[in-house]
Specification:
The complex is a heterodimer of chains A (343) and B (315). Chain A is built from 13 helices and four strands. Chain A is mostly helical. In chain A, α6 crosses α12 and α9 packs antiparallel against α12. Chain A is elongated, with a radius of gyration of 28 Å. With 315 residues, chain B is an alpha/beta fold. Chain B is built from eleven helices and 13 strands. Chain B is elongated and about 75 Å long. In chain B, 42% of the residues are buried. The chains are: A mainly alpha (343), B alpha/beta (315). At the A-B interface, α1 and α7 of A face α2 and α3 of B.
Chain lengths: 343, 315
């Protein structure tokens, strides 16, 4: 068993990987560093205190005191030039000019400013004697899965599967080709299918470590949970890893130099880094681009991972994205086998 | 019962690349238990020839029979590969694997392979067993490459420039490895551009130039074909002005051939004891002063020069 060529080839692949410290960092360390940095930078603070300026003039201090009493607002008395400056630079969300009428100056495209206007107006109206006819009660909830880090972790997982699939397979294949190791293997009775399968197998072994590291870190640091089943996450990541291994094989199928394959790899990956909704939602791209964006394998993989991790979807509901991921993998693999340069 | 097929038989091999003819009609037969050398300068077509014989390159034309079988696709090819040991000229084995892991990987491809211990013993790398390939010296790497070729217990061993770039000691160690393989009954085809190596190791050699065999035979018979066993080389201190003409030199007693070179003139000589005094006398009469005088036994190198007019090394 141990001397089966498939076992030996897979062991060789794994040894070459874990004896390369840089590779370990890029596959395991980098996504965690990225998740940590972005998770800290974009942590949800809520709107927080909104700062409102009151222009100096008749009745200013009464108004400012009333505003300052309102929850969520702070008020400052400013003279005209300072008030304009702070409004322009966004240090105050709203400038209230006391008088009759009371004037609100603000930038209506800023969410914070519109919020401040609503809050301030309620204070002003109540101060003038308005009473609210309806009784209301607030019930505050925090919905898990709605934070940026909840969005980010599945995206990083997808991106990492893409990166390690393409680099792990593509780079090693081309290196073996430039070093004439591929040709040397061709001079033995080794089966070509064993060689290619060894890449897939070693990918699967490291895949579990990769996924466990990132998901574990997300849970430990940011309490990013998995709403759906772990089995579904496992199934999707395996499918994603196989698909990108196929794509890596295709990218590496003809290239003769490491430089050439690096260029090709970036050509394949760069559009997906930007378009596939890893760091921000691809819904921001224009409607005309959406069919293209959704057809990319990383987009489909990210969608499927988010559906399971955030929305708790079951595999059966994810036919479309998983179909896209599978199709990319199959087509790449078949084409790669046809055009593969073995020498 | 018919005698077993020769380990290597090929006829009419031709291989053309975009702008060069690498092999231009080549016929060879290598017999069982023979060590056969393909000799020639870089670019003579040795590597293309050996890779065609190894089934790694398809010839444009011609026939190849290895151990009585042809290179076709599929399982018969795999069966043939089980019986061969191949070392390629410029394979770089994975640097981050150990010697043992590398051998174990290669042996997993064969059914009736040597054990790791056996094959490391054959090439004398037992002590490097746990060393990373990247940490080995050039000679050790080359012995490991030969170990990966020997691990299949081959009947026929192909070695492409096995000692190029090695120091003399490493070279001798590899010669011993090849010698042991032959003593155990194996057949060897090797390429080299070291004539000394060919004379030492090979039963027969084919000298190649421009994709063709220009001479074939035992090293001894090829050297004998020069008609003389010695080479006398000389150069003059004051250049060509007082140099005797080739015709004058050819007329000296014992001289069989004259090869004027760039910086020296070489004479192929049957009897050194008669030719050298005569040469010295001639030069003295002409008032020419020697800056170099050397004699050596004729080698395959001299055979190559006499056939092509070029030195092997700078050909």
């Amino acid at each position: 068993m141990r001397d089966h060529p498939l076992v030996q080839l897979t062991l060789a692949r794994m040894r070459e990987f874990y004896r390369e410290p840089e590779a370990i960092f890029w596959v395991f360390g980098f996504p965690i560093v990225l998740a940590f940095a972005l998770g800290i930078a974009f942590r949800n603070r809520g709107p927080g205190e909104l700062r409102v300026a009151v222009l100096r003039g008749a009745g200013d201090s009464v108004l400012a005191a009333a505003l300052a009493r309102a929850p969520g607002l702070t008020a400052a008395l400013l003279d005209s030039s300072e008030a304009r400056l702070q409004l322009r630079t966004g240090r105050v969300a709203l400038l209230v000019v006391p008088g009759d009428p009371v004037v609100y100056r603000y930038d209506s495209t800023r969410t914070e400013s519109r919020l401040a206007r609503l809050e301030a107006d309620a204070v002003v109206q109540r101060a003038r004697g308005r009473s609210d006819p309806a009784r209301v009660t607030d019930q505050r909830v925090t919905e898990p899965g709605s934070r940026y880090i909840d969005f980010l972790i599945p995206g990083l997982l997808g991106m990492n599967l893409m990166g390690s699939g393409l680099w792990g397979v593509g780079f090693s294949v081309v290196q073996a080709r430039t070093k004439k190791l591929l040709k040397r293997f061709m001079a033995t009775p080794m089966r070509r299918s064993h060689y290619l399968l060894s890449f897939i197998l070693s990918r699967l072994v490291f895949l579990f470590l990769e996924v466990a590291a990132l998901v574990g870190f997300g849970w430990w640091m940011f309490h990013v949970g998995v709403r759906g089943s772990f089995a579904a996450v496992a199934a999707i990541t395996v499918l994603g890893a196989l698909s990108f291994a196929g794509l890596g094989m295709l990218v590496a199928s003809r290239a003769r130099t490491v430089e050439a394959v690096s260029g090709l790899m970036n050509l394949v990956m760069l559009p997906m880094w930007i378009l596939s909704g890893t760091f921000f939602s691809y819904a921001r791209f224009p409607d005309a681009m959406q069919p293209l964006v959704k057809a990319l394998p990383l987009t489909a993989l990210n969608d499927a991972l988010r559906a399971v991790m955030i929305d708790g979807s079951r595999l059966g509901e994810l036919g479309a994205p998983l179909g896209i991921v599978t199709a990319w993998g199959l087509v790449s693999f078949v084409v790669a086998l046809q055009i593969f340069r073995w020498r | 019962m018919s005698p077993p097929a020769p380990p290597i038989r090929c006829a009419g091999l031709t291989k053309r690349y975009a702008d060069v003819i690498a092999v231009a009609g080549l016929d060879l037969t290598v017999n069982t238990r023979e060590c056969f050398g393909l000799l020639g300068p870089n670019g003579a077509g040795k590597t293309t020839t050996i890779e065609i014989l190894e089934g790694l390159t398809a010839p444009d034309r011609g026939e190849v029979e290895i151990l009585g079988m042809r290179w076709t696709r599929g399982s018969s090819t795999r069966a043939l590969r089980e019986r061969l040991g191949i070392q390629l000229q410029d394979t770089q084995l994975a640097e981050k694997l150990t010697v043992e892991e590398t051998v174990r990987l290669f042996r997993s491809f064969y059914r009736a392979a040597h054990s790791v211990e056996e094959v490391l013993g054959l090439v004398g790398l037992e002590e490097k067993r746990t060393a990373w390939v990247g940490k080995l010296s050039g000679g050790q790497k080359q012995r490991l490459a030969v170990a990966c070729a020997l691990v299949s217990r081959p009947e026929l061993l192909f070695l492409d420039e096995p000692t190029t770039g090695l120091d003399p000691q490493s070279r001798r160690q590899l010669w011993e490895v090849i010698g042991r393989f032959r003593a155990a009954g194996g057949t060897v085809l090797l390429t080299t551009h070291y004539m000394e190596e060919a004379e030492r190791l090979c039963d027969r050699v084919a000298i190649m130039d421009h994709g063709k065999v220009i001479a074939l035979g035992t090293p001894r018979s090829l050297i004998a074909s020069l008609g003389a066993e010695h080479v006398v080389e000389f150069a003059l201190a004051d250049g060509a002005a007082r140099a005797p003409s080739p015709a004058e030199l050819a007329g000296l007693p014992g001289v069989r051939a004259v090869r004027p070179g760039v910086d020296r003139t070489a004479l192929t000589v049957a009897e050194v004891h008669r030719a050298v005094p005569a040469l010295l006398g001639l030069l003295e009469r002409r008032g020419a002063e020697l800056s170099l005088l050397a004699t050596h036994h004729a080698t395959l190198e001299d055979v190559f020069v006499s056939l092509t007019g070029r030195q092997l090394r700078d050909a």
